[in-house]
Amino acid sequence: MSKASLTSDVLLFGAQGASSDAAATRLLDDIRKSGDAETKQLVDDFLQGCFEAFHSELDKLADREQCVLEASVWKKLDKAETLVTCPPGCQSNAVVECVNLYVHQMLDLLAYMCQASRDGEVVMAQAAGVCSGILPAVLAASFPSWPSAHFVDYAINAFRVAFWIGVRSSLARWKCMQGNAWDMNNAWALSIRGCGPDQLHDLVDDSNKANPTAPIRCWKSPLRHILVDIIHWKQTWDYLEATTLSTGSSTAPIRLVFVGPNTTALRLSWNSLQVKLDVEVTTSTSVFQSPPSQVDNIAIVGMSVNLPCGEGITQFWDTLKNGTSAVSERFLPVHILPRFDISRYNVPVEGVATTGKSRPSMQVKHGNFLRDPFAFDNVFFEISPREAKSMDP
């Protein structure tokens, strides 16, 4: 296969905030119904490993940590599939939500990689994740080769990380609700809801002024700026976009693949890049398709209609099977269908010459005619009686 026929995919993993239960259940059903043997085995091994890891890590929770996952919740997760389907009453739990999102994204990734391996027309060029999507993005970037048992083992270990991320975030929230002081210096990030961009900007400035990250000393600050790489996310994003534009090639089409549930904001943020580049935006579930099945049988789906030489299923099938032509010369007599007196128009050429009369004539005497044109239900087709009267039978 030539390089020109390959497609470079950029995988994007979204964060929490999108409902994924129904989509994950449909994805699991599609894989088990139409996936190949390799994909089914990998998915089953992954789900079973995550299920065992869930209960293994659950047993490691200390007494003070068990408040984040009540027994009424984790007891409903009694089999591997419940990590995908998420039984009622479990969706609102932060730990379950975190592992459910991860499992959904990994199912999508496994299906995508197996499909790409089978087709051989796709090369994963980059992988990126937002917030919780960093975990599957790291796995996708670390294993550019096709999925294997080794890949599944690492995916199960990453599931343990997702579990403890949910536990730690739930504990921090629970301590705040109990009125206990929370040491913000131990946090990597803070989630703030209900604030506009301007208000959020003011809060960040106030926090930076009240909690400086480094001592303000002229002799030390320049050295720190030299040794520490300060990341400006807007400039970083602009640089990545410019790099993509400069390295884009018409011989290697670029496709943005959203893996797992993603918020609408993440999709909309790529509109500018999609306009500048000739790229395709899709989801991994649309990329995953079942292999074509070898079926020799033919199914004919018919409608409730009457056709020439096709009154009923039996006669219609016989006409198709035998290749019978429905063309006939049978015109309806005048006393049966007075408004279509074909003989008035079917005048021989010599007849016109002898009479010397000039009137419309029709030399064609054959056609596909219905035996009973009066069975036409004009009311069903919303045709007025006057229109139906003048229609060709």
Automatic annotation (TrEMBL):
Highest taxon, organism lineage: Eukaryota
Matches recorded under PANTHER family: FATTY ACID SYNTHASE (PTHR43775), SI:DKEY-61P9.11 (PTHR43775:SF37)
Sorted UniProt keywords: Phosphopantetheine, Phosphoprotein
Ranges of residues in domain Beta-ketoacyl synthase-like N-terminal: 297-393
Annotated protein name in UniProt: Polyketide synthase PksM
GO BP annotation list: fatty acid biosynthetic process; secondary metabolite biosynthetic process
Pfam families, A to Z: ketoacyl-synt, SAT
Any one GO molecular function term: fatty acid synthase activity
Starter acyltransferase (SAT) domain residues: 27-216
InterPro entries tied to this protein: Ac_transferase_dom_sf, Ketoacyl_synth_N, PKS_NRPS_Biosynth_Enz, SAT, Thiolase-like
